[in-house]
Amino acid sequence: MAEYELAAPARTGHLARCLCGGHRFDLAWTYATPPEGETRYPGLDGRYHREVWRCTACGHFLIDPGVDLEELYSGDSAEATHGDHMRETFERLIALPPERSDNHVRVRRITEFAGDWLWAHDAEQRRPRALDVGSGLAVFPWALASEGWSVTALDPDPRQAELARTLACVPTVCADFTTADGLGTFDVVTLNKVLEHVPDPVMMLNRTTSLLEPGGFVYLEVPDGEGAAEDGPGREEFFIEHLHAFSLTSVGLMIAASGLAALRVERLREPSGNYTIIAFCGLPELPNRQEERRALRVLVHERHDDAAAAWLELDEPVREPLD
Ligand SMILES: [Zn+2]
Which residue from 203, 144, 151 is spatially nearest to 176, judged by alpha carbons? Predict the structure, then answer.
């Protein structure tokens, strides 16, 4: 294994630094041919070379696809991935028995968490409003809407946005999440297997903070590189579409760097066999108002001007008469 310092961004526009700020990487392995099961992109014929680098500090994997993915996708990404069969794939996925469906388990996980968390923060008990970022085949927004949630789907790919509109039958925005305006606010923002596709996941995750209602939460799923690496380089967590595969540490650091607070982070093995890290995140708590008032009271006790006197008059608790 060679240790290597990324002197310049890799060919993909990757950050030269890891999410953790680290800049030293080990070359974990390389690919000269596509691993079994990976989508064969016509543009890659005869020039396949990928490198997987691992941060020595936090264990995060940076994956250099060796080509400009935008260029690769500008061909027929959705077609290459799902062919003309996106509709059939949608039908097949929603018909999976619950115990074999990653999506079923995901929806249950989120609705259960919302039951504990959202209701505790929302006196109105209204229908939760969710934004699903990177809705893809739209199986998730469909299932969440079936639970009675109000769901908006967002996808930058017009073909996938069309799927959400016509198959999941939910309001749909076709846009780049990092630049889209006027999305509104939501109780829950979900990013299922999205952050591993973008060069700067912290920037994308940070965007959710301005869209959350007070007391709302973000749910995210990313590939667990740590778990998958135990099974070797053939795992789909390292397939060409992914620029990142995460460690438990790098997920925690990403959440903190994006201005969110981790509420729950877990590694799990999904029904499909995928190694995945999931996280629920909230907005950091406002400072405790009682603490703030107590601190103010200490301050005014140390001053003797009119403002201090006025504050004391207004705010000093009425003393119980002494017996
Ligand atoms: Zn790192």
Answer: 203
